[in-house]
Amino acid sequence: PLIAYAYVVRQDFLLTLILLLVSGASDILDGWIARTFNLVTDVGKFIDPVADKVTQFVVLLCLLTRFPRLVIPAALMVVKELTMLALGMVVYKERSLIKGAVWHGKVNSLLLHAMFFLHIIWPDIPDTVSWISIGICVAMMLYSFAMYVIRFLKMLKYGDTEEKGVPGQALSEEV
Question: Cβ-count burial of 103 within 10 angstroms (0-12 exposed, 13-18 middle, 19+ buried)?
Answer without folding.
Answer: exposed
